[in-house]
Design goal:
Layout (H helix, E strand, L loop, with lengths): L1 E5 L3 H13 L3 E6 L2 H11 L3 E5 L9 H12 L5 E5 L4 H8 L6 E5 L6 H12 L3 E3 L1 H7 L14 H11 L4 H8 L3 H14 L7 H21 L1
Parallel strand pairs: 1-2, 1-3, 3-4, 4-5, 5-6
Helix pairs in contact: 2-3, 4-10, 7-8, 7-9, 7-10, 8-9
């Protein structure tokens, strides 16, 4: 599986290269700034990219800009974004195309090697992986007219676990209920969020995006 890495901190960049190489990934290029990230993504068209949000030259959102532009030109290009802090607006923008194959993790998660490698593989496979800390910040009290207010407490729990990239079986195990019960909850979530019929994976992405849209609306009030 071919990987491009974009990270400005040399020690972390080298560490990511070694870690992924040790788990049978082929790191085709590792770069340190936004423009180089976009060039590498377009040139190699990797199976997955691991990109820091803040890269030189501005150290604001250069990595995210490169990721979004690459996905604009190569729809569905799998990208896992790393960030030092929770930035829900960035997560929302990355998910806005509704295609899937995206992830948003805090850099601390790299310390858990198995979790990080699993996240890279999930994103490469077209899945959506959201950091639990991002999800926890999105689970705030919302106004009555916001879409997520239609969901029950249990449905919000299910959606939070979906947003972390978990399968129905994993969600069921986490909540100690049957997969059949989870399937019913997910169908109810899709209906209450007015998500149109489409492939189930795509509707999962759209459901996660509903979380982020609600958070953005809350912040702008």
């Amino acid at each position: 599986m071919r990987v491009v890495i974009a990270e400005d901190l040399a020690l972390l960049r080298d560490g990511l290269v070694r870690l992924l190489s040790a788990h049978d990934f082929d790191v085709v290029e590792a770069v340190e700034d936004g423009p180089s990230a976009l060039t590498a993504l377009m040139e190699h068209r990797p199976d997955v990219a691991v990109v820091d949000v803040r890269l030189p030259p501005t150290f604001t959102n250069e990595g995210l800009v490169a990721a979004i532009e690459a996905r604009r030109q190569l729809p569905g290009l799998p990208i896992l974004v790393l960030s030092q802090y929770v930035e829900p607006l960035y997560a929302r923008e990355l998910l806005s195309d509704g295609i899937g194959g995206v992830g948003y993790l805090l850099k601390d998660r790299v310390m858990d090697v198995s979790q990080f490698v699993d996240a890279v593989r999930q994103v490469a496979g077209g899945g959506t992986v959201m950091d639990p800390e991002v999800i926890s910040q999105l689970l705030v009290k919302r106004a009555a007219d916001e879409p997520l207010s239609r969901l029950t407490h249990r449905e919000r729990e299910v959606l939070a676990l979906i947003a972390e990239g978990r399968s129905n079986a994993a969600v069921a195990a986490g909540l100690f209920v049957s997969e059949k019960a989870i399937s019913k909850h997910i169908a109810s979530i899709f209906m209450k969020l007015d998500l149109p019929l489409s492939e189930d994976d795509n509707r999962r992405v759209m459901a996660v995006l509903a979380y982020l849209n609600a958070r953005t609306a809350h912040q702008e009030k």
